[in-house]
Amino acid sequence: MTESQKQIYGEVPRRKKARSNPALTVGMVLLFLMGVAFIHSTQSYNIDEIPLAKQFWFKQIIYFVCAGLPVYFAISRTDYRFFYNYASVFYAFSLLLLIPLVLKECFSIPIPFVESRYNATRWIDFGPISLQPSEIAKIGTCIMGAALFARQKLGKFSDDFKFWIRLGLVFFVPILLIFLQPDLGSTLVFLPMLFAMLYISTLPKRFFAVLLLLFAGVVGLVAADIYGYSNFLKSSNLSAQEASSRNAYGSSAALCLPMKDYQRNRILAFVAPDVVDPRGLGVSWNQRQSLISVGSGGIVGKGLSEGTQAKLGYLPSSVAYNDFIFSVVAEESGFAGATLAILLLAGVVIFGCVLTAQLAADKFGQFLCIGIAAILMTHTFINIGMTVGVMPITGVPLPMMSYGGTFVLTCCILLGLVQSVYRHRRIYS
């Protein structure tokens, strides 16, 4: 541009070179390394008896290095608007993965590669590799929900009736399909995601009052179901374990929610542990042992691989490395290590998602990052809450720290999307 042109048109802003947010990447990697260290600790008591290929910490590294990191960097360098253009495709694909699980669980239709485990049908097994479609559904729903909000100019409710129908279906369908597996924990993640997107939209405050009333209604239905289940246990002289093994209440009650009795046991163990497990040796065992783990860690913990709850099997090995990994962290690294994990999750990763939403170039990027922040925050709150006794036990893992190939990949995809929004933000020099 010549000097005369500059005088007429002024200085034209020049776009900065696209860069990722280094804090987000560092926080993600540090959380992963912490997770690997404490996952190793849960198997340290018999690590020499387990082949390396079957050790959870080693498999977690393979998941992260061979799948998670490549996908993270690939998505971070892809323009996030690509996902906006194909949002319906990603959403439909995520739903298609859920349908075989429901067919197997609800109708007993034999589906190749679909197996039921732990009283639920949640995985698709491809030999040594297992895929949990509910995690993929979170990604697809988040992308589709953000795309709907970005395309819609919200006004009066009557003017946007079709939008509310579409939005309701986008979130209701995966919630229903996941609930029927059954997987109550994963269904809890979708509603905070929706509320977070609604909160940053232009909706009037009275609309949130209606949503709170609906949420209260759902809580009331669950409470009524649990009350009926409690009375059933008293009248039938069945123990909680016997009812769970036979799904006695779920198969006999005329009016009840489509939950399994073991799920009712978990909720009842939280609100009334003396009713469902008076001796603390049944359904409430894991949570009680988790409380002991967290409480015994002190300020600096007992040291890596020195925690007695997981090492001696009081905190069962089947849950210590995934859903209750925070208990191991708190016992072996104490208040200091637990605080560090929370700060990395909330102060670096989740705050990084919120900050990126503020810097986003468009509404889609904004809603996408807020939805991802809500997913990670919900996972963090529920997981830590159940280990310290303020939430009922659900199968909700801790982001980047709990063992699980699909969940590690999911976290990397979500954070890769956030990095993509950050790299393509409109900042000029």
Distance between the termini: 17 Å
Share in β-strands: under 5%
The number of domains is 3
Point out poorly predicted stretches. 5-14
The arrangement of helices and strands along the chain is HHHHHEEEHHHHHHHHHHHHHH
SS element count, helices: 19
Lateral arrangement of strands in the main beta sheet: 1-2-3
The biggest beta sheet is recorded as: 3 strands, antiparallel
What is the number of E strands? 3
What overall form do the CA principal axes indicate? globular
Q: State the helical fraction.
A: 55-70%
Mean pLDDT: 85
- Structural class given helices, strands, pairing? mainly alpha
Radius of gyration: 23 Å
Topology:
Blueprint: H1 3-9, H2 22-42, H3 56-76, H4 81-85, H5 87-107, E1 114-117, E2 120-126, E3 129-131, H6 133-151, H7 161-179, H8 184-199, H9 205-236, H10 240-246, H11 248-252, H12 261-271, H13 273-276, H14 285-296, H15 308-311, H16 317-320, H17 325-359, H18 363-387, H19 405-423
Antiparallel strand pairs: 1-2, 2-3
Helix pairs in contact: 2-3, 2-17, 3-19, 5-6, 5-7, 6-7, 6-8, 6-18, 6-19, 7-8, 8-18, 9-12, 10-12, 14-17, 17-18, 17-19, 18-19
What can you see in these coordinates?
The protein folds into three domains: 1-77 and 290-429, no CATH class; 86-203, no CATH class; 214-283. The two termini are 17 Å apart. Helix content is 67%, strand content 3%. The protein contains 19 helices and three strands. A three-stranded antiparallel sheet has the order 1-2-3, with helices on one face. A hairpin with a 2-residue loop joins strand 1 and strand 2.
